[in-house]
Design a protein that fits this description.
Protein name: EAL domain-containing protein
Strand content: 5-15%
Keywords: Cell membrane, Membrane, Sugar transport, Transmembrane, Transmembrane helix, Transport
Strand order of the largest sheet: 5-6-8-9-10-11-12-13
Radius of gyration: 35 Å
Membrane topology: Multi-pass membrane protein
Number of strands: 13
InterPro entries: Cyclic-di-GMP_PDE-like, EAL_dom, EAL_sf, PTS_EIIC, PTS_EIIC_3
Pfam families: EAL, PTS_EIIC
Number of helices: 29
Largest sheet: 8 strands, mixed, barrel
Distance between the termini: 74 Å
Structural class: alpha/beta
Amino acid sequence: MLAIKHINGVFTQFAHSRYILSLREAFIALLPYFVCSALAILVLNVAVNFSFITSADFIYKTIQQSSLVILTLFPVMVVISVGYHLSKNLGNSAVVGSILGLVTFSIHSDFLIFSDGIFTVDGTGASAYAVLVPSLSSYLLMLGRRFIPMSFFDLPLLSEFLKEKLLLILPFAFAFFALFLILPIIESVLHFVVVYLVPVDSQSSVALQLFNRMLIIHGFWFFGVHGDNVYSMMFEQTFISKDIFPGLSAQTFYDTFVLIGGTGGFIGLIVASFFLAKGSHEKNIARISLPFSLFNFCEIILFALPIFLNPLLLIPFILVPCFNFVVSYAMISAGAVGYQDVSISWMTPTIINGSMVGTDLVAPILQVFLIICNACIYYPFLRLSSERNNYQLAFNKLSSKLNMSERFAAKSEQRFIEQQRQSSVSSAHLTHVLNTISQSRLALYYQPQIDIQTGHVNGYEGLLRLIKRDGSITGPYFLDTLVAHKQTDIIDRWVIEQAHRDLMQWSNVGFKPTISINVNPDVLTNKSMINKICDLFIDFPDQLKIEIVESSYLTQQTLVTEHIEKLRENNIETVLDDFGTGYSSLSMLANLPVKHVKLDRQFLLQCEQPAGRVLYQQVTQIFAKLGFSVVAEGIETEAELAWVKSLGIETAQGWLYAPALPKNEAQHFVPKPIE
């Protein structure tokens, strides 16, 4: 029982892994392409078989050319879709990942062959690389981004979009060249597995060779590779045109009695799906694929259900054609099924092809019997798949985890238009703000932080101010607009660099204060910014603190923790600012390497109510037990100062002592004694 539970857990983890869900997402995106491909071939063959058109007609040539292009480009479409969706879900640029997959596929798959100065296209064997190459290239791109240093492109005036693409140059090159080393190894291993572990003896009977061919082809299809094409490239298969029974070719036997509804006997699967619960994923896909499976097109079920890389459905996928092969072979060998020498297309629907091959009704009756048996084989596995694989839930979970934008795809046109209008207004406001800043002057003013017991200055908080042309000074009212438009990077860089300049000037006159600066929460998730801060303040150990609002800790906690620890290694502490106004989480703080916290004035104002006083007191005690250094912000009255002093808080900051002061005044500030 324990082993079964473990196997179920492993299977669920595999089925809902980021890689498998990305591949399913990629192939679902290709459904319109599959349907278009099937329709083109279906229309062409039906029209010719029923003499609606002839090979000399213009429409015949048009459809034939279109279907040929569609079939030839099929592996290319798979590469693009897999590269795009897998790269996106791995955190890479989806477009760059798709381009990388396409380029490497074209080189390694022999899809493009250069000979005598010209390129020719050969898609027959390329499908073997259509999933493998973009999968490898996407993961290599992710590894490159993770381990290759990116500081070379850390330039302050570049847009984030341009910087993101520049940062992918080295990972792109790493992935591109690494495949030249990795793919030959994989090809050698696969060649050994296929050729030596699955031998095909040309001296064996036609039936045995056909059976071996069936197993190998289905194995390829399970891994998303066009089994028939790859088999024809790797193995000699002249036996397929030979008679498996006198007057009945192996190909006709295989198409008529084994692949009933296409690879894996999918007519039986469709019948089984009708007995599943209404609205199940498997039932819906089976309904969509029914008209195509009647003509033996299998891609929709293979990739959208999926059979592809679905270990739960691998068993019936192999078992059903084996069952059909053995039963049909036994029935015909016993003389129970009459047959005749006819040539049929692989697209001929089941029952019709049985009627054409058989000399009586026994052949189509055998096909019906096989369909019923196939449905019975598929049903328990389909039902278990339906119960175990809630792919919609898995996709929603993945989407939420990766913060993918697809969740917004269902917005109505009216809402879209309204958003466009609001965006236009917002952009105009942003433009006004940027113009105002460019026409004014930014400055850092410093508000003293006072040791309550001694009255000495413990440090200063650098606060951003905007000095306009008329000399008036305002606070950073524009920050909310910049945050909304994700345009705070240039302000953050200015604040950091200005704080460095101020410390240098103060150092020249022998003044060495500790200052804290406020930056956008995104700074703690930006590796290049963290490196910049560490390098810039290397000559000012223990003189800088980074203040960050607590909401920034709610996401990417591991990365934030790593960067806080790096700052601490470089003698730069991190302070949690404005505690009590946002997403306060004491349990989260206990797990983060932060030992400094500031209690916001809004939190202090709640002390006017009894419940607020108790809360403020209890939070202060918790911080003391956790070893936090606490600064009480917004102290404006002596009563407020007496209250926080009674709680054992060591440092206070507020207008009671001084407002934010210009740099020169802050340097000479002496706090007045307060009783």
